[in-house]
Design brief:
Length: 599
């Protein structure tokens, strides 16, 4: 194969004639796809082709340097939602990565696990073998944990438990060695309200206030992505990547997947390649259901409207879409510290000085992405508000059929009912939201346990036409109540003496408003329905509950076809998803190896 300079095994469309055969073809080279490909090619006898829609990034500052973070060049653009009915009919951008490495090349690098209960709920919903206890070895396997300098850790309230971490995995995980003075105000203010610091939020109890771990290599203070491992292993002759190419559908003989059809994004030339063992779909939670539907896997009635022949009538494909809702609360200050989380943007002298420090290998503001502060607060509902009982009652009363519409498949409704009863049961035991102040102009509120559900549906037979993406944001009114609760807690935090001393004055979304109805109207206006954490559109649940894959990631009603990305989660995780995507893909890789005697 050609050597294209960057890595040895990048191949071109022209090199794959019809009839080329690999053991495994991975559709989508994002976090899950590359993780699985990396593990499968540990065996030199196993051949793997990854087909990725996006290009290789160029290792530019916008990708590598946290403080220069700018994901736009490698996002799917323009990718928009359908009008969000409960948000006044507005359409919103849908951020997700389109590059070798997927989300891991464009994400904000926060790297943490969610509550144990959350993964245990996956198992309850049908994902046998995916509980917290089952996944913990895979969380460890995926990371190289780099503990912080002891003195720095003591000064900045960073605590951790090494027994829960891995020290030999592909993702370099570290804490930023730099922070702004405002973080101390935030920490003290939060703790003064009785919110507890978490010892190590990666211990299955991701609650309280804690310092965020990041996927950053501490030696270079640069991004650690899923691509890094591929670069390191580029000498593997059994591992090929075909970039800038769209998988347009899975090919079948009967119900057995035999390969894929793919299209070069440069000139639209179409071809096919065969997989002798398995086709593994990992195109992310928006595009995985698109590929499945285009391949004849989906609601037969819907596929028929586009003249697509059904291979497996799977009503759950593209259903159950979930994401985190984000609300930015902006402030001015009468007496904030300098520097703070806004200073890199607002003060060129400071930015230049910090860049020099960064380039010289010293702790610097360029070690931070700035989108969120170093600290985050994550809490169950009863710790956000005294109204948790009435909110749970509201959720219980809500009829999922009203949420999804009368035409929704019965299996999907049944699955949603099961999800809701678990979510309501655990609403005061697992984190339902998060809040972080970047010490500058911005507080971010994350609503992480939405009851609302959305969907991804193709409305054309071309892979180049974006599917209809509907988050259904706030279609369940419970979600607005939870959001309001977190927003009000944010006001409490910003009013504690530790933060009030900086003179914060709310600028958006609801300055000066006290009336609940009026505040909620403003929250709806300011809300974004996606925090780039789309998931759950090919859920690992029973088929009669709207599930799409079994607990071994295999697509129901087919042979030799699996899905390994965040699409398979029944429920969204409560923090940043990437650590869970890596862990789930590590597990999926073992399951795949196991079924072909490769373990
Ligand atoms: C801007 C942004 C910020 C984020 N910040 C954080 C954060 O700080 N912390 C955190 O934990 N998570 C964060 N995330 C989320 C996290 O990165 C994702 O949850 C994760 O990448 C999902 O992994 P995946 O393997 O399911 O899909 P992805 O990593 O998205 O990979 C899917 C890949 O498939 C490719 N693909 C799609 N269609 C096709 C096709 N037809 N043919 C071939 N290839 C295709 C895509 O181009 C993509 O590269 C962020 C995401 C974004 C976009």
């Amino acid at each position: 194969h050609l050597h294209l300079g960057r890595t040895a095994n990048v191949i071109e469309v022209s090199q794959l004639s019809n009839g080329t055969v690999y053991d495994f073809i991975v559709a989508g080279g994002g976090i899950a796809g590359l993780t699985v490909a990396d593990r499968l090619t540990e065996n030199p006898n196993v051949t793997v082709l990854v087909i990725e829609y996006g290009p290789f990034d160029k290792r530019e500052d916008a990708v590598m340097v946290p403080g220069a973070y700018f994901p736009v060049p490698y996002l799917w653009l323009p990718l928009m939602t359908t009008p969000q009915l409960a948000l006044g009919g507005t359409s919103y951008g849908v951020p997700c990565g389109r590059v070798v490495g997927g989300g891991s090349v464009v994400n904000a690098m926060f790297f943490h696990r969610s509550d144990a209960k959350l993964y245990d709920a996956w198992e309850e919903l049908g994902a046998t073998g995916w509980s917290w206890t089952d996944l913990l070895p895979y969380f460890k396997k995926s990371e190289t944990f780099n503990p912080p300098n002891a003195e720095y850790a003591a000064q900045h309230n960073i605590t951790w438990d090494e027994s829960l971490h891995g020290f030999d995995g592909p993702v370099q995980a570290s804490y930023a060695p730099y922070d702004y003075a405002g973080s101390e105000n935030f920490y003290n203010g939060v703790v003064s309200l009785g919110i507890q610091p978490a010892k190590d939020p990666n211990n299955g109890h991701a609650q309280g206030i804690f310092r965020l771990l990041r996927s950053v290599n501490p030696k270079t203070q640069t991004r650690s992505s899923a691509r890094v491992r591929y670069d390191r292993d580029a000498s593997r002759p059994n591992y090929h990547i075909l970039p800038s190419t769209a998988v347009s559908r899975v090919l079948f003989e009967g119900t057995t997947a035999t390969g894929v059809e793919y299209v070069a994004t440069s000139n639209g030339s179409k071809s096919t390649v065969q997989a002798s063992k398995e086709v593994i779909v990992a195109a992310g939670s928006v595009h995985t259901p698109q590929i499945l539907q285009l391949s004849g896997l989906g609601d037969a009635a819907q596929l028929k409207t586009l003249d697509i022949k059904t291979v497996s009538d799977l009503q759950g494909v593209g259903q159950n879409l979930q994401d985190h809702l984000v609300l930015k609360v902006n402030y001015n200050y009468t007496s904030n510290h300098f520097p703070n989380g806004g200073s890199l943007q607002s003060n060129t002298t400071y930015a230049n000085e910090q860049r020099k420090l960064y380039d010289g290998g010293n702790p610097s503001a360029y070690d931070l992405t700035g989108t969120t502060g170093n600290l985050i607060v994550q809490l169950p509902l009863s710790n956000w508000t005294t109204r948790s009982t009435s909110i749970a009652t509201l959720a219980r009363r809500f009829d999922p059929a009203a949420l999804l519409g009368a035409s929704s498949p019965e299996s999907v409704l049944r699955g949603l009912e099961k999800q809701r009863s678990i979510m309501i049961r655990d609403i005061n035991r697992e984190a339902v939201g998060g809040l972080s102040w970047n010490t500058g102009p911005e507080t971010s509120i994350y609503m992480t346990r939405p009851f609302s559900r959305g969907s991804v549906k193709i409305n054309s037979t071309s892979i180049f036409d974006a599917p209809l993406i509907d988050f259904g944001a706030l279609t369940d009114a419970t979600d607005l109540d939870i959001l309001y609760a977190i927003y009000m807690k944010n006001r409490d935090i910003m009013s504690t003496p530790d933060i009030a001393v900086l003179g914060p004055i709310e600028v958006t979304p609801a300055p000066g408003l006290e009336d609940e109805v009026a505040i909620k109207e403003e929250l709806i206006r300011a809300l974004a329905p996606s925090n780039a954490h789309q998931c759950c559109t090919a859920a690992m649940m029973a088929q009669e509950d709207g599930g799409v894959v079994d607990a071994q990631n295999r697509v129901y009603g087919t042979d030799r076809l699996s899905v390994v990305d965040a699409s398979v989660w029944p429920l969204i995780v409560s923090g940043g998803p990437q650590a869970s995507v890596y862990a789930g893909a590590e597990k999926a890789a073992d399951l795949v190896k196991n079924r072909y005697g490769l373990l």
